[in-house]
Amino acid sequence: MSADRPEEPAAPRPRDLDDAALVDRAQAGESTAFDELVRRYEGKVFHLTRRILNDADEAEDALQETFLSAYRALPRFKREAKFSTWIFRIATNAALMRLRKRRPDVVSLDQPKQLDGEGETVTLDLPDWSHSPDQELVDQETRTAMDEAIAALPADLAAVFLLRDVEGMSNEEAAEATGLSLAAAKSRLHRARLFLRDRLHRHFQGRPSNRKGAPKSTSA
Fold first, then answer.
1. Is 138 among the domain residues?
2. Which of 9, 77, 146, 215 is the most exposed, having the fewest neighbouring CB atoms within 10 Å of its CB?
3. 205 burial class (0-12, 13-18, 19+ CB within 10 angstroms)?
4. Hey, how many other C-beta atoms are within 10 angstroms of the C-beta on 15?
5. What's the CATH number where 153 sits?
6. Is residue 31 included in any domain, yes or no?
């Protein structure tokens, strides 16, 4: 009698693979591998695009555009960056393009504001903020104020802030995802934090009582 052949181990399921292995399979034409990448990142991408656009319907459209663009570009993906960084960069670009079409008058805090009448320019003077905004989220009212402040961020600052302080990317990953140099990404992150600090400070200044959770601005 011939000995039974040992059973070959079953191929790992897509959900058991890391991103790099899924990219390999997707580039080889395995549709279930790309489906798993979509399942793995669609929630995070939607969260990012909704934060940038502040509109659920447009965020959903940006989400669809992101994965359609990723699918078309996947054969050219050389993994010089992680898949997560790459997909966030596509999503950020998709959201910012939509926002610029909707708000062509959006200006960046990197640029001075021009005053009416005299034609003079001024830069924004904001309080210092060296800590993460998450440290200020002491109650639901503050969370609401924080959401409103994030929605008011200029688009280019919002993208870096959301990737770094909300999605938890490193400075290097946030820079790569937005196509910026590391120095530029750090600068925009700092300006975003200053902007949010100022908005929260003004919010708490207007509270009639219970200002214990109010951020404190630094004195000159």
1. yes
2. 9
3. exposed
4. 10
5. 1.10.10.10
6. yes
Domain that holds residue 176: 127-205
Token reading at 100: 């610029």
Output the CA–CA distances (angstroms, integers) from residue 217 to 57, 117, 187, 202, in the order listed: 37, 31, 19, 10
Q: CA of 140: how far to CAs of 9, 43, 170, 210, in Å?
A: 51, 23, 27, 13
Q: Let me know how long the chain is.
A: 220
CATH of the domain at 42: 1.10.1740.10
In a domain, 64, yes or no: yes
Co-location of 74 and 136 in the same domain = no
Query: Do 60 and 136 sit in the same domain of this protein?
Result: no
Binning the chain into helix, strand and coil, the percentages to the nearest 5 are 60, 0, 35
Whole-number Å distance between alpha carbons of 32 and 39: 10
Distance between CA 33 and CA 198 in Å, rounded? Answer: 45
Give the pLDDT band of residue 2 (cuts 50, 70, 90). Answer: low
Whether the CB-CB separation of 142 and 96 falls below 8 Å is answered with no
Angle made by CA atoms 17, 18, 20, in degrees to the nearest 5: 115
Helices then strands, counting H and E runs in the chain, come out as 8, 2
> Is 17's pLDDT higher than 50?
yes
Its pTM stands at 0.66
